[in-house]
């Protein structure tokens, strides 16, 4: 099966790093990942620089990065102000973020989910006027740090509301990494039944070590699009206890070993993860980071086998 991976380390990953990462390093991260075969990024966020100082250079990152035209750069657009900023840049896709639960919405966006939905309408209108593609991202789709397990009915209700605003694609965010495979199955099936035209992307965190099991559950339901973060960096500044995304290296290793295709070069990713570790000055959570020095052969990885 051909699997499409969106790399979220430049946004979901770096936004949680306390130490400043320079604009040049962010650009090098994206360009290095393009060299490893990545075709779609969450590249940055037009969140308020006061709320997330790490993303204050969103314009500079997008202006400075040198990538081919077929690479899609997404920018997170939290509100109309962010959308107005994004409209002035090359970002082809806007990630319109909201929460599935009231508790996470209040903590993350300081408003109710009804208000958040209302605020998406002018953003959608602006995206259409400016020829950008708006994609919905529903945080806390499986679990909420304040409300516990997110009911499947709630996710379906939000997906209907997003469809009615005009969204045709949504990212289901397991923001705090509490989803389990049977829940992935249940939510995907419910959405396919009630909102069949909505394209689904799974955005999984590995807080409890179940992210790859959750990918398997998604694949069993025919979901072919996933998000991951180099080295497994990430979290959520407004979700206590959240840890990193599923690591791109681990996801690609798993998919290749199972005979699926991603278009990504695993050894190149591992090398890029080492580079990111040096930039951040610490070991990263990716399992392959500890297990495989650069140049080591990865059993069962077709890319490695071809190299010998
Ligand atoms: Zn996330």
Descriptive overview:
This protein is of the alpha/beta class and 308 residues long. The protein has one domain (4-304): Aldolase class I (TIM Barrel). The chain contains 13 helices and 10 strands. Helix 2 (23-35) crosses helix 3 and helix 7 crosses helix 8 (181-194). The longest helix is centred in the middle third of the chain and has 17 residues, at 113-129. It binds zinc ion.
| Structural class based on helices, strands and sheet pairing | alpha/beta
Number of helices: 13
- CATH-derived architecture: Alpha-Beta Barrel
Contiguous runs where pLDDT drops below 50 for at least 5 residues = 304-308
> Total strand count, please?
10
Percent range for helical residues? 40-55%
Taken as a percent bin, the fraction of beta residues is 15-25%
Taken from the alpha-carbon principal axes, the silhouette is globular
The biggest beta sheet reads: 8 strands, parallel, barrel
Kindly give the count of domains: 1
**CATH homologous superfamily name?**
Aldolase class I
Structure ligands: zinc ion
The CATH topology label is TIM Barrel
- Topology pattern, helix = H, strand = E: EHHEHEHEHHEEEHEHEHEHHHH
Instruction: Output mean pLDDT.
Output: 92
> Order of strands across the widest beta sheet?
1-2-3-4-5-8-9-10
**Roughly how many Å is the radius of gyration?**
18 Å
Whole-Å distance between the termini? 24 Å
**Class in CATH?**
Alpha Beta
In short:
The protein is α/β, with parallel strands linked by helices and 308 residues long. The chain contains 13 helices and ten strands. α2 crosses α3 (58-64) and α4 runs parallel beside α6.
């Amino acid at each position: 099966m051909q699997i499409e991976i969106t790399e979220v380390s430049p946004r979901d990953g770096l936004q949680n790093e306390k130490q400043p990462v320079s604009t040049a390093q962010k650009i090098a991260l994206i360009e290095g990942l393009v060299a490893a075969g990545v075709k779609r990024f969450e590249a940055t966020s037009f969140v308020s620089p006061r709320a997330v100082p790490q993303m204050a250079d969103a314009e500079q990152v997008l202006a400075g990065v040198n990538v081919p035209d077929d690479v899609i750069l997404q920018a997170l657009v939290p509100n109309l102000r962010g959308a107005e900023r994004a409209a002035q840049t090359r970002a082809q896709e806007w990630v319109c973020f909201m929460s599935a639960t009231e508790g996470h919405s209040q903590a993350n966006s300081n408003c109710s989910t009804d208000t958040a939905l209302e605020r998406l309408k002018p953003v959608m209108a602006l995206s259409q006027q400016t020829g950008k593609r708006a994609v919905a991202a529903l945080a806390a789709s499986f679990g909420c740090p304040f409300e516990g397990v997110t009911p499947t009915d709630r996710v379906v209700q939000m997906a209907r509301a997003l469809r009615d605003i005009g969204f045709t694609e949504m990212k289901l965010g397991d923001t705090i990494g509490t989803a389990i495979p049977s829940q992935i199955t249940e939510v995907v099936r419910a959405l396919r039944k009630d909102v069949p035209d909505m394209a689904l992307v799974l955005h999984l965190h590995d807080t409890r070590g179940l992210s790859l099991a959750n990918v398997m559950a998604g694949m069993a339901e025919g979901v072919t699009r996933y998000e991951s973060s180099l080295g497994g960096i990430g979290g959520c500044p407004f979700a206590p206890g959240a840890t990193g995304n599923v690591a791109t290296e681990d996801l690609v290793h798993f998919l290749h070993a199972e005979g699926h295709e991603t278009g990504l070069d695993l050894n190149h990713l591992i090398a890029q993860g080492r580079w990111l570790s040096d930039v951040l000055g610490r070991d990263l959570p990716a399992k392959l980071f500890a297990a495989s020095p650069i140049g080591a052969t990865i059993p069962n990885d077709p890319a490695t086998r071809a190299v010998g």
